[in-house]
Amino acid sequence: MVNDEMLKKLKDQYIGVEVPDDEKNKLNEILEYAKIDRKRKRKKVIITRWMISVAALLLVVIMPNTNETLASSLKNIPLVGNIFSVITVRKYDEDKNIKINMAKIDSNGDIKNKKTVEKLNNDIKKYTNKIVNQYKVDLGSSGFSDLYMDYKIVINNDKWFTIAFTINETRASGYEFHRYYNIDKSSGKIVSLKDIFKEKSDYIKIISNDIKRQMKQQMLTKDVVYFIKDNGISTGFKEISGNQNYYINNEGNIVIAFDEYEVGPGCTGAPKFVISKDIVKKILNN
């Protein structure tokens, strides 16, 4: 574990000793990674609380697909069907600097479905208020100078509806993290990465190896830095997690998404890697 004292010693050694450029670059990476390690620990606490809060919102997002009575009443609403269209509702709390953009159903002027849409929007408002209150308790009291949450519809095709939530937190410095939720329109279920692969298939290794290949290639051809465990750094990216952020793009390829500081320094941002369906086609579920 890299602590503050070790970090200071490394920095003092770096300042006091003349070293070759390649070694200096490697030491810079280690120093940067030590800082990120501390950010990650703080982020894990935030994400755990965030997952509890967003669970309530997901009940609203998937409601038309999982509740047969409600799905039946919504099937004739324009642009709704299996997946509804959304507009943005903004929530603000100036005292705690919390800004949240949430979803709201748009009936598109269809009067005969007005009551149904109003009922659903009331439910959304109720869940949204719960989320805002949870943020005030869990996140607003954590000393953040600013907290902003937004959503984006990433994919909405015949097969998939993917919604991504982005949370930006700023204090002395800021970072953002994301959570992607993929809904199979045919079943109305939220699908995790492991669900799209056959049982006991080594999808984590296959995907991780391709990501590391892409990382190394990008570092040769682009001005980008990744921390790779088998690339001379003892602590770095080794493999994706079991609940890794992902979505399936319109071409049918898997897109793996990382948060800031997850696989590289802040300048790397929140990178995404496209995994060709040809690489994993033999282990995909039918």
From TrEMBL:
<dbReference type="InterPro" id="IPR037126">
    <property type="entry name" value="PdaC/RsiV-like_sf"/>
</dbReference>
<dbReference type="InterPro" id="IPR021729">
    <property type="entry name" value="DUF3298"/>
</dbReference>
<keyword id="KW-0472">Membrane</keyword>
<keyword id="KW-0812">Transmembrane</keyword>
<protein>
    <submittedName>
        <fullName>DUF3298 domain-containing protein</fullName>
    </submittedName>
</protein>
<feature type="transmembrane region" description="Helical">
    <location>
        <begin position="45"/>
        <end position="63"/>
    </location>
</feature>
<dbReference type="Pfam" id="PF11738">
    <property type="entry name" value="DUF3298"/>
</dbReference>
<keyword id="KW-1133">Transmembrane helix</keyword>
<feature type="domain" description="DUF3298">
    <location>
        <begin position="194"/>
        <end position="277"/>
    </location>
</feature>
